[in-house]
Amino acid sequence: MDYLFYLREGPGAAPGPETGLEVEVWRPTLLRPLRAGLPLLPFAAWSAFHFARVFATRDYRVLLLAGPEGPVHRTCLLPAHFRFPFMVPGDLQAAALWTRGDLRGRGIALAGLRAALATVGEHRVWYMVREDNLPSIRLAEKAGFAFHARGGRRRGALAGLLDRFELQA
C-alpha cells in the first residue's frame, strides 16, 4: 500500500469553530506515563520513546476532545524519530487521529486537528495517509496541509515495530 505524505510549514493553525467540547493537551510525565482511556498500544511505546529520548525532541503530546459522554476525538503529535528518516529534529507528525464513530462527518476531526496544530508554534508538521483513505486526505487538505510526496513502508524487525516509512524520489 502506498502512502501520501502531506506537510504543513509555518505557524500553527488557528483553532476551528467552537465545538463546545473540552480540550485537553496531555503529555507523559514520570507520575503519569500513560493516560487513562488511551489504548496501551501504541501509547505505551510512544511514552517509552519519549522517556528514552528516541524522539528527537520532548514535544510528544496528545490533544483530546471530550463531551459530556466522554472522549470524542484525539490527535497525536509525534516528534521525528527513526521510523520517519525524512523528518528532521523539530518536525512533528500528526498521527493516530481518532473520532468516535457516531460523530464522524461533523467537523470534529478538523476542529481537533486544528486545535493540535495551534499548539505547535513554528514546527513543520507532517501528515501521512494511505492513498485510499479519502476522508483523511480531505481532512489534511482542509487543515492546510499540502501534498509533499508519495512513499511507502519498508519492513523491519519485531513484527513491524521497526518498520520505516520512506518518501519516493
TrEMBL record:
Q: Which InterPro entries did the record assign?
A: Acyl_CoA_acyltransferase, GNAT_dom
Boundaries of every N-acetyltransferase domain copy: 95-145
Please give the superkingdom of this protein's source: Bacteria
What SUPFAM superfamilies does the annotation carry?
A: Acyl-CoA N-acyltransferases (Nat)
MF terms in GO: acyltransferase activity, transferring groups other than amino-acyl groups
Q: Identify this protein by name.
A: N-acetyltransferase domain-containing protein
Q: Which organism is it from?
A: Mesoterricola sediminis
Ranked from the top, the taxonomy reads:
Bacteria, Pseudomonadati, Acidobacteriota, Holophagae, Holophagales
